[in-house]
Design goal:
Chain A is of the alpha/beta class. In chain A, about 30% of the residues lie in helices and about 20% in strands. Chain A has an eight-stranded mixed β-sheet with strand order 1-12-11-10-4-9-8-7, sandwiched between helices. In chain B, strands 6-7-8-3-9-10-12-11 form an eight-stranded mixed β-sheet, sandwiched between helices. A four-stranded antiparallel β-sheet of chain B has the order 2-1-4-5, covered by helices on one side. The chains are: A alpha/beta (about 350), B alpha/beta (about 325).
């Protein structure tokens, strides 16, 4: 059973989600248990949505499916993807080798994602040329300089003619965001932006993304393992564990009253700036996919596990706030769970 | 001064300059640090601040360009000494990424054998010490025959800690020991390191870019900027009353998970630019190019470390003015 923890977490305004991923299941050949099990995400324009979880939770595989970059061994067992209310054929995503229409992505490693032997300008022009409106080179260059300005690079012309190694890490990350903006996306996917950077530069990049969402009225899917980043830069959050979404709530609510034992354990593992300790962590490790129990996938590590957990199904609706748990935690049961 | 209070490690005026092409890279510029037995000293700062250069020098894998490192009063800057057993029995190292610091072709037992052989123990004694080490890092005996490939990130880091403990050092240099791990695993490894410190009376030089983690681990914290300590204090004091504008910029940028912590952060300080290259260190106070409180005087000479509180020093001439103006606590 899945407990709905509140009403719809975001004003619906009757608007169709900019991106609606519903019931995505993926397995790798010859293995029975899906590594992603009925994952659903809905994101609207102007919304900043976090997808959080630790290594192996499935957040990156979900992203790869949206970007058409699934590894060849991955079989899509089910699931639909709509962008701007338009249902996409499965060949337009999953293994398409190009992002689903309207989507653009900011990668994590600015050093690895830029080609070291071409100038920033060359790399921007290469993307600009692939865009539907073919125009002369002067207009393409102007478009490139415009996006460099949009990402607050103070000297766009100098950056345009620079090689990546001549730029600092923060500037390279801005160039990657500029590359994504050239595609005129409706949804921007940011995979751990700033994780490879120092905390001061990360803060600047995150505030730039915030501004872009507001100015360009973008939808933002922010994939991160850093719960602090999710708390400070998203409007609502999907928490993933073991290939399923286990909790979904408006950000403020999730951090004030987390309800899934995994979310509570994860938050309890984070060292606090007030010096109250580094937490106890969560015993055990994520089971290998062949060893996933039926039902709730967290039961092998959960102190509250009981037979009913084996029948828990993923939640049906990505718009409602929910906790996918037989024993959702409350203010009274939360503090004593992990000690 | 009792034996217990005698410093285990003294770093005095430590400098390191690399020649890269025609450029001089000044990675460390006169660092002074003291570490007592059983103490955890934290070193924090952005990439390029010199943290890892310092770690490598203390572990003996790089020779300083100037200054002195004394271990139990004995100067250990000569590279020959650092290969000696006397040095290895006192200082060991745990690196950031256990995936690359462990030999993938050696089982856990074979990895732990290497340091044990240098002790000249016979096979039976090595075997019993091996089991003792696994027990210390809370790994079951069945892991002895595992290869690193079969271990999780947290388990690998436990093996790296066991290897460091094998010859019973007094000091372990921990260079970002948990930054490659998930937080639910990090919490367990940090818990282990803190228990081992109590149990074995170890001292740690704890290097991390994660200030929230530092707050909970280090007894004392030093903030490094462009190869120099810019602020140092007992950890609780440093986080309660950060004085250097750079420390305050770092703290205000940390993403936190609760409103209580958000209230502890200094008022948001706009981040100006990025850390300059260590081959082009600004004149005067090296932070003046990014400092929101810069004055003309800041560009002239590099400030000394000034006393700004109990055991609390900071390298900034603006602190008295800023306090008087109510900008600083």
């Amino acid at each position: 059973m899945t407990w709905l923890t509140g009403t719809a977490p975001f004003p619906q305004t009757g608007q169709a989600p900019t991106l609606a991923l519903d019931g995505l299941s993926i397995r790798f050949a010859r293995r029975d248990v899906p590594v992603l099990d009925r994952v659903s995400l809905h994101i609207r324009r102007g919304e900043r949505v976090g997808l959080v979880g630790e290594s192996g939770c499935g957040k990156s595989l979900t992203m790869l499916a949206l970007m058409g970059l699934l590894p060849s061994g991955a079989q899509v067992l089910g699931g639909t993807l709509s962008v701007l209310g338009q249902l996409l054929a499965q060949r337009a995503w999953g293994h398409a080798r190009r992002p689903a229409p309207g989507l653009a992505m900011v990668f994590q490693q600015p050093t690895a994602a830029l080609n070291p032997v071409f100038t920033v300008g060359d790399q921007l022009l290469a993307v600009a040329r692939t865009q539907p409106k073919q125009v002369n080179k002067a207009a393409l260059t102007t478009a490139c300089l415009t996006v460099l300005e949009q990402v607050r690079l103070s000297d766009p012309r100098r950056v345009f003619s620079s090689y990546p190694f001549q730029l600092s890490g923060g500037m390279r990350q801005r160039v990657l965001i500029a590359l994504a903006l050239l595609r005129k996306p409706t949804l921007l996917i940011a995979d751990e932006p700033g994780t490879a950077l120092d905390v001061t530069i990360q803060a600047e990049i995150l505030s730039l993304l915030d501004d872009l969402v507001r100015e360009e009225h973008l939808a933002l899917l922010h994939i991160t393992h850093n719960l602090g980043v999710a708390r400070e830069t998203t409007d609502r959050v999907y928490v993933m564990y073991g290939g399923r979404v286990v909790e979904h709530a408006p950000t403020a609510e999730l951090f004030r009253s987390p309800s899934h034992p995994y979310t509570v354990g994860l938050l309890g593992s984070i060292p606090r700036l007030d010096g109250s300790g580094t937490g106890v962590g969560i015993p055990g490790t994520v089971p290998a996919v062949q060893g996933m129990p039926p039902g709730c996938r967290f039961q092998s590590r959960c102190p509250l596990a009981e037979p009913a957990c084996r029948r828990l199904e993923p939640p049906p609706d990505a718009d409602e706030a929910f906790v996918s748990c037989v024993h959702p935690l409350t203010a009274t049961t939360r503090p004593g769970l992990w000690t | 001064m009792t034996r217990q209070d005698a410093p285990l490690l003294e770093v005095q005026g430590l400098s390191k300059t690399f020649q890269v092409g025609r450029e001089q890279v000044q990675a460390l510029r006169g660092v002074d640090l003291t570490l007592r037995p059983g103490q955890i000293l934290g070193l924090a700062g952005e990439s390029g601040s010199g943290k890892s250069t310092l770690a490598r020098m203390l572990a003996g894998s790089s020779a300083p360009s100037g200054g002195d490192v004394r271990l139990e009063g004995r100067s250990v800057t000569g590279e020959r000494l650092q290969g000696e057993r006397w040095f290895k029995e006192r200082v060991q190292m745990v690196f950031q990424d256990p995936a690359t610091s462990l030999n993938p072709r050696r089982t856990v037992a074979q990895t732990l054998e290497v340091p044990l052989r240098t002790l000249g123990l016979n096979a039976a004694a090595r075997q019993s010490r091996l089991l003792e080490l696994l027990d210390l890092v809370e790994l079951g005996q069945e892991f002895a025959s595992s290869y690193p490939g079969a271990l999780s990130g947290g388990q690998k880091q436990r093996v790296a800690v066991a290897r460091a403990l094998a010859i019973e050092p007094r000091l372990i240099v921990l260079d970002e020991p948990t930054s490659a791990l998930d937080v639910s695993v990090q919490a367990k490894v940090i818990g282990l390191l803190l228990r081992l410190r109590e149990q074995l009376g170890l001292a740690y030089l704890f290097i991390s870019h994660d200030l929230s983690l530092m707050r909970n681990v280090a007894d004392e914290t030093a903030i490094l900027y462009l190869g120099r300590v810019v602020e140092q204090a007992p950890t609780r004091e440093l986080f309660a009353r950060p004085q250097h504008p750079y420390t305050r910029m770092l703290l205000s940028a940390i993403p936190v998970v609760s409103d209580e912590e958000a209230r502890l952060k200094p008022a948001h300080t706009a981040v100006v630019g990025e850390i300059p290259s260590a081959s082009r260190i600004p004149s005067g106070c090296t932070f003046h190019t990014r400092c929101p409180f810069v004055t003309e005087a800041c560009t002239r000479s590099e400030p000394d470390l000034l006393d700004v509180g109990p055991a609390h020093v900071a390298r900034c001439i603006r602190i008295p003015d800023l306090r008087a103006a109510g900008v600083l606590p």
